[in-house]
Write a structure and sequence with these properties.
Length: 288
């Protein structure tokens, strides 16, 4: 039997965790996480990491294995995940389960990353200063003018993603999207992708309920403990950004919760837009 990587993906709150655990138990596989925010041990509530009960049912990798102060990229994840996958296959597994909602990281694992030009640190620092002083919307508008393709593909509320694309546009004079060759790297295992989906209104209800649950579990306190690190890339994330604005006095708590729910819905929509371009994904209805 050939070696197979079963990749379970889908928008936030669709039900990937429970489904991936069931499939992992069927296959005798651990679960390899591909959620780029669940890597960070300080961000458990705001990233909806699996519960202790879920983690106890099957072994998970890449959950809480990093600190927010660690510099970690999609390329580093590609190397680490491929090394782990190779070792697990060598131990006798014929099917391994990967799950997550981080589009770029899933692409890195399945296809490898394109080679983008190095950008001077001074330019990146200038854009970070602009992000802090003017906000992400100003940078996103500039990206939309220079590279509308990338603007439509990425999470434009994520300052880190916007800066990465914009700095390449400004430094090279070419759209960030023009460097995406999509020349896939060969993998020595079969890749099967399953996409979980739900009717839009049902998904939105689940998103809103998840945010309320995070608040009950202590998202406000978790975010406050991370306030000194708010400029770190790991914290340019829905849930934390809105909480930091709340601490700055921009919104009351009720409006903050509403904004987290709205921005999470927007993120789910962008996830689906990204994956709809991939014809290899087999979409199924999530039922549990």
């Amino acid at each position: 039997m050939g070696r197979r990587l079963l990749v379970i993906l889908g928008p936030t709150a669709v039900g990937k965790t429970d489904y991936s655990i069931e499939r992992a138990l069927e296959c005798g596989s651990p679960v390899i996480s591909c959620d780029s925010r669940q890597f960070y041990r300080e961000m458990r509530i705001g990233t909806a990491v699996p519960s202790e009960e879920q983690l106890a049912r099957v072994r998970h990798y890449f959950i809480g294995n990093l600190s927010i102060q660690d510099n970690y990229t999609a390329g580093m994840y590609e190397a680490d995940a491929l090394d782990l996958i190779g070792r697990l296959f060598a131990e006798g597994h014929d099917t391994l389960v990967v799950t997550g909602g981080s589009m770029l990281y899933i692409d890195a694992l399945c296809y490898g990353l394109d080679d983008f030009p190095e950008v001077p640190l001074m330019l990146r620092e200038h854009l970070m200063d602009c992000l802090r002083s003017e906000g992400v919307d100003v940078l996103a508008d500039q990206l939309k003018e220079l590279d509308p393709v990338t603007y439509d593909e990425i999470d434009i509320s994520n300052g880190q993603r916007v800066i990465r694309a914009l700095e390449v546009c400004l430094y090279t004079g070419q759209p960030f999207s023009s460097f995406k060759t999509r020349s896939f790297k060969e993998r020595d295992f079969e890749i099967e992708k399953i996409g979980l989906q739900r009717p839009r209104e049902e998904l939105y209800v689940r998103i809103e309920a998840r945010v309320l649950k995070m608040m009950e579990e202590g998202l406000e306190e978790e975010a406050r403990s991370l306030l000194p690190y708010r400029d770190l890339p790991a914290l340019q994330t829905v849930g934390y950004r809105e909480m930091f604005d709340h601490f700055d006095g921009k919104y009351d708590l009720e409006e903050t919760v509403r904004l987290i729910q709205r921005n999470t819905r927007h993120y789910a929509k962008r996830q689906l837009t990204w994956w709809r371009r991939d014809p290899s994904i087999r979409w199924i209805e999530a039922t549990s």
